[in-house]
Amino acid sequence: MIHLRDMQIGEFSDCIAYFIPDYAEEISANYNEAIGAARARAAREVKADLPLGVDTPGQVLLCMVRGDEDDAPVGYLWCKPEETVHREARSRVAADNEKAQRLYLTAGYRATGINMRKSICG
């Protein structure tokens, strides 16, 4: 069973080291952006959204662990809860990120929508 726990300060850099390249791949695939530019964009967005790391107000950073809370993370969850939603976690996963989709489904999430894109130029 997967459990969520608060991310510790020392785990933030591992999370970001995983997240930025993964997010850059999604940006590149979904917006036809060169991977170098996508990595720079991902890094800028993360720095803007999480200027204080795990202590950034309004942001929730959690580690997904199997079994004991002291276990090493098997995944991460980053969300910004709506002020009116207190007990519901929300997350977005790219359609081509099957590993993350399986992990979220295992943790009890369900799909609530789909976004689609089509290039009409060139």
Quick tags:
globular, alpha+beta, 122 residues
Structure overview:
There is one protein chain. The mean pLDDT is 83. With 122 residues, the protein is α+β, with helices and mostly antiparallel strands. A hairpin with an 8-residue loop joins strand 2 (60-66) and strand 3 (75-79). The protein has a three-stranded antiparallel sheet, with helices on one face. It has helices spanning 9-31, 35-49, 98-106, and strands at 2-6, 60-66, 75-79. Helix 1 packs across helix 2.
Ordered list of secondary-structure elements with their pairings:
Elements: E1 2-6, H1 9-31, H2 35-49, E2 60-66, E3 75-79, H3 98-106
Helix pairs in contact: 1-2
Question: What's this model, at a glance?
Answer:
The protein is α+β, with helices and mostly antiparallel strands and 122 residues long. It is built from 3 helices and 3 strands.
User: Which percent band covers the strand fraction?
Assistant: 5-15%
End-to-end C-alpha gap? 47 Å
Helix content: 25-40%
Weakly predicted, low-confidence segments: none
Largest beta sheet: strand ordering: 1-2-3
